[in-house]
Design a protein that fits this description.
150 residues, alpha+beta, five-stranded antiparallel β-sheet, 3 helices, rod-shaped
């Protein structure tokens, strides 16, 4: 009739779920990245608006960009140079000011410059020197220069 029950096996315990994983590390990383980004942008803006703020290094970079002869405009003075690579924009009050840009002819090919070198500056009556600045075999600008009278 009734059988003697065998040893009772307790039912398997159910696993209690643990606490959800914390996202603190990810949040800290995002906050740190955001702060660094804001510092970099703020620092860049500060240097852009006040290039003399960091002293010599930033000022040297700004001066190098501003003195690049490719940025010359009519009225700018340039130093005396033998090669175009040595040409720099200088302050017209400086003793280095040897020539003044009296005209600019944009978008001239190197071959067109070679063929028409002298005629390109005829529209600027005071020119005495003509210089082509561009990439070899490509387009560039022609600078019509006159001696700077200090």
């Amino acid at each position: 009739m009734y059988e003697q029950p065998g040893p009772q096996v307790p039912p398997a315990p159910y696993a209690v779920p643990g606490p959800p994983p914390r996202k603190t590390g990810r949040i800290v990383a995002i906050v740190v990245a955001a702060v660094l980004l804001l510092c970099c942008c703020g620092g860049g803006l500060f240097v852009a608006l006040r290039p003399d703020a960091l002293g010599g290094f930033a000022k040297d970079i700004v001066d190098a960009v501003n003195s690049d002869v490719a940025n010359a405009e009519v009225g700018d003075c340039v130093n005396d140079f033998a090669k175009v690579e040595d040409a720099r924009i200088v302050d017209c009050a400086s003793t280095d000011a040897a020539n003044k840009v009296v005209g600019v002819v944009d978008d001239v090919t190197e071959s067109e410059f070679t063929a028409k070198e002298q005629a390109l500056c005829n529209a600027f009556p005071t020119w005495e020197q003509v210089v082509w600045i561009g990439k070899r075999g490509g387009n560039g600008d022609v600078w019509c220069l006159a001696p700077h009278k200090s």
